[in-house]
Amino acid sequence: MKHCRSLLSEIRQLIDLRNSPETTCNNVNALVDRHNKQVDLRIEELKAPNRQLKILRRKCTTGRVVKDCGILLELSQ
Question: Which backbone phi and psi does 18 adopt, to 5 degrees?
């Protein structure tokens, strides 16, 4: 929800800027730059869990039964 509110706020700002066609693009660029930094931070935050999930996934091959599932065995330790 927080992300949606932030995105709506950014869209409103862009619309406001669009309604001032004679101003410079500096504010538009700054807005996009801020958003891009937020995206970069979020990507970094997701890399660690992504690596952990890949390691976990290698614990179990297809064709096994649940009682021998390497993922579930790993999670239960």
Answer: -65, -30
What distance in Å separates the CA atoms of residue 25 and residue 33, rounded to the nearest whole number? Answer: 12
Find out whether 62 and 52 touch, Cβ atoms under 8 Å: no
> Residue 2 has what pLDDT?
67
CB 26 within 8 A of CB 13: no
The rounded distance, in Å, linking the Cα atoms of 58 and 5 is 38
Count of positions (residues) in the chain: 77
pLDDT at site 62? 81
Closest listed residue to residue 13, CA positions, set 1, 26, 2 = 26
Q: Which ranges of the chain have pLDDT less than 70?
A: 1-3
